[in-house]
Amino acid sequence: MAPGNASSIHRFGQEAKQRMELARRQVAMAVGAKPDQVIFTGGGTEANNLAIFGSLRPGKRHVITTAVEHPAVLSPAREVEATVVPVDGQGLVDPDEIRRAIRPDTALISVMSVNNELGTIQPVGEVLAIAREHGVPVHTDAVQALGKTAVPAADFVTVSAHKVYGPQGVGALVARMPVSKVTFGGHHERDRRPGTENVAGIVGFGAACADLTAPEASLRDRLEELILERIPRTRVNGRGAPRVGNTTNVLFEGIEGEPLVIGLDLKGFAVSSGAACSSGAVEPSHVLTAIGLSREDARSCLRFSLGRGNTEEQVVALVEALEPVVARLRKLSPAYA
Ligand SMILES: Cc1ncc(COP(=O)(O)O)c(C=O)c1O
């Protein structure tokens, strides 16, 4: 790996710069943008913050977003004046709700491309058309779309390397419009994101972007079919919406997601229960409550993400491991009658 600082003019620096610029072209190609529109950041979270705070202008400080965004959008949105638009029972936003939320001082509309918990694909193209009519820029958090489905050509697009088999801690904001920097220092990244670039991470991100393969939905469908067939009182969240092929979110009535995660971990399967522990209490996922689940049901869901190299045998083994864990937990659960 080139150890140089990409801003240095000596040979080592220039070698690092060349590699970084190759990665910039690779990332740009993967999202259908121009290389000079790619601003490398320390991940998706930073890119979302840059898009939101960097779009604010005098007299334009209002942001529109949706109830199912990742905290990396919802938290910065809470720091500004924001309208958070609800979603339907499948997790989809109604573009007309976005239209109704637009105000003269709206600086940005931020709608994610693909939801990280449900895998549902939002109608970002329709949102873009509405925003164009009103001259409002659109940001899309495409962290979960890259490599899985088409990345919308929004004015600002967030991507993150570690969701496409690249390294952790590196991402990019693709900016097709000017964006104001939100941290201050040197003039890196065309004066939009100061600080010495993470060349090794960026090179890894570029390589990952040059090697994207969209997941097949067939394995996910098989997993859902087996769970619904073998385990009673289960339901797939967001199943009625267009979805990417790797994610499924399943409700197991009457039990908590956390012990299910632990039970499966002991059997060698890594899954996630969208709930997060905050101040000692397990908070249900805001995405699942936004689609209408009760707090109790939202705590009873698991998210399964299938990746490269997963096989049908593994899917079958997973369901075989899941059945007895669910049965045991339900026996112990007063909520499962
Ligand atoms: C939809 C979405 N946005 C943003 C992020 C945050 O990206 P990063 O972890 O690179 O900061 C994630 C990560 O899980 C995500 O799923």
Summary, kept brief:
By secondary structure, this protein is an alpha/beta fold. It folds into 2 domains: 11-209, 3-Layer(aba) Sandwich (Aspartate Aminotransferase, domain 2), CATH 3.40.640; 217-332, Aspartate Aminotransferase, domain 1 (Alpha-Beta Complex), CATH 3.90.1150.
Q: What does this molecule look like?
A:
With 337 residues, the protein is of the alpha/beta class. It folds into two domains: 199 residues, Aspartate Aminotransferase, domain 2, CATH 3.40.640; 116 residues, Aspartate Aminotransferase, domain 1, CATH 3.90.1150. 37% of the residues lie in helices and 16% in strands. It contains twelve helices and twelve strands. Strands 1-7-6-5-4-2-3 form a seven-stranded mixed beta sheet, sandwiched between helices. A hairpin with a 2-residue loop joins strand 10 and strand 11. Helix 1 runs parallel beside helix 7 and helix 8 packs parallel to helix 12. The radius of gyration is 21 Å and the shape is globular. The protein binds pyridoxal-5'-phosphate. Pyridoxal-5'-phosphate (PLP) binds next to helix 2.
